[in-house]
Amino acid sequence: MPQLRLALNQIDSTVGDIQGNCESVVRWTRHAAGHGAHLVAFPEMMLTGYPVEDLALRASFVKASRTALVDLARRLAGEGLGDVPVVVGYLGRSENAQPRYGQPAGAPQNCAAVLYRGEVALRFAKHHLPNYGVFDEFRYFVPGYTMPVIRVRGVDVALAICEDLWQDGGRVPAARTAGAGLLLSVNASPYERDKDDTRLELVRKRAQEAGCTLAYLAMVGGQDELVFDGDSIVVSERGEVIARSPQFAEECLLLDLELPAAAGLVPSGQVDDGLEIQHVTLSEEPVARYEPQFTGGEAERLGDEAEIYGALVTGLRAYVEKNGFRSVLIGLSGGIDSALVAAIACDAVGPDHVYGISMPSAYSSDHSRSDAAELARRTGLHFRTVSIAPMFDAYMAGLRLSGLAEENLQSRLRGVTLMGVSNQEGHIVLAPGNKSELAVGYSTLYGDSVGAYGPIKDVYKSTVFRLARWRNAAAEERGETPPIPENSILKPPSAELRPGQVDTDSLPDYDLLDRVLELYVDRDLGREEIVAAGYEPEVVTRILKLTDTAEYKRRQYPPGTKISAKGFGKDRRLPITNRWREGEGS
């Protein structure tokens, strides 16, 4: 059988940085060609970054992407890389779609192309468009209706884009009909917990349906709230794993494959789902036999906590670096949330770029102050103390607040302090709120919710504790100082806005709270279904009411890394003005 050395470039791209993304394609193509690759691939929408959202509807941006594609083909040839076919994602548009109501203006498409010998040898658009969760691709794109196949070194390679694998029908069975020896899918595929297992089973299933080896190339990096974990996979036609890339790391996965020779006749005509075969022959002559150097293997898989933590670090790093920020600022209370956020920040951007402020009031305990200072000592971040007591006294003398208003004033004074330092020194503020608190509204608007990014926004409180313990244990295994003080993990959580306050004064135990929230928020179960699962009706009613009435607060919270199947963001859209209450009827 013919041999083919495949290069899957599992790399990052930046939305809108078309020039920078093209530079990455050239650099990684040079690397792959230097290692003897016969076919090189890059992720979905590599030239523009992903997702581009409403930029897809801007004609000037679509034009810039299409122009860059042609220029890139010429540049690759000009630099001596033209004889290696390069598959790369970009933003294109349909050439024959007629304007009509309900169709995105300009008929943009999520496209990929094959660049070869200075030309764009083939273009095609994503066939299946996702319109669930964080995906809005019906809003932005029109689908493609071709089955692209390229003949490379005597092997027919069928091509697909991400959702073309996730949905049944279309290009997967069409690849079998077309007689492909390899199905190559370029993807972005945002991360969520346990998706790596789902992804592997999907790829195995699709390879067997296509009847050929399947290469699934994924993106790595972050874009606003989304994280891309990589985890590129190549499986045989029987679904056996040949190679698998690491998560949260850029890599050029090189792999020597033996694949079936293309049939003498070029496939043509319509196949499954009415797709029209689009076949381009790039090279008929097989590669001269050689001794395989890159035979595959699986990267070590991450444990659950390591995977989540890696996603949080990747998301924060991408947000800071891609938006041109230099440093981050965190209010350090001595509690578990701010301690975990500080540890993530130090791992993401380095402690020299992390600034922490302890802002004690009359109700702050001595251990909270010392825990904040100890965290700074362990991590090496910049640290200072600014007492809010004088500000608090001045406000109280003028406003004479009491009760909850008095408590929240302390939080808002801390928010003002953080934003003042942010403006003065140029740091971005990180909000320390977790998913449990956001769900039930246990936060103060313009207080602990201020910031440009919320690194643990999609992390339930019980998982916050697990991640803190895991991070400390990981440090100990490496012979390093655990970053989070043990006291921050062991002491009962408290906002410390009144004497003796603890979170359980206002909320159920976090373990119980999180289990109910996961059913309601992540899985969309109703009150009766949750009660039937074994939870006390009064507790369920209280938690659901708190969650429903806090929507206005969540809308004002900064973006943050999504790690779950349903975070508080694009994939959970509920009205603020809403009188529906579970269990009460309309």
Describe the structure.
There is one protein chain. The chain is of the alpha/beta class and 586 residues long. It has 18 helices and 20 strands. The chain has helices at 18-34, 59-78, 137-140, 163-166, 171-177, 195-210, 304-322, 336-349, 366-379, 389-399, 403-425, 435-440, 461-477, 486-490, 510-522, 527-532, 537-549, 551-554; strands spanning 3-10, 39-41, 86-93, 108-116, 119-125, 146-152, 155-161, 182-186, 213-217, 220-223, 226-229, 233-235, 241-244, 251-258, 276-281, 297-298, 328-331, 354-358, 382-385, 428-429. The strands form four sheets. It has an eight-stranded mixed beta sheet. The termini are far apart.
- Report how far apart the termini are: 66 Å
Q: What structural class is derived from the secondary structure elements?
A: alpha/beta
- Stretches where pLDDT is under 50 for at least 5 consecutive residues are none
Radius of gyration: 26 Å
Shape: elongated
Q: Please state the average pLDDT score.
A: 93
The DSSP helix count reads 18
Percentage beta strand: 15-25%
Number of strands: 20
Main-sheet strand order equals: 15-6-7-8-9-12-13-16
Helix content, binned percent: 25-40%
Major β-sheet annotation: 8 strands, mixed
Features:
586 residues, alpha/beta, eight-stranded mixed sheet, elongated
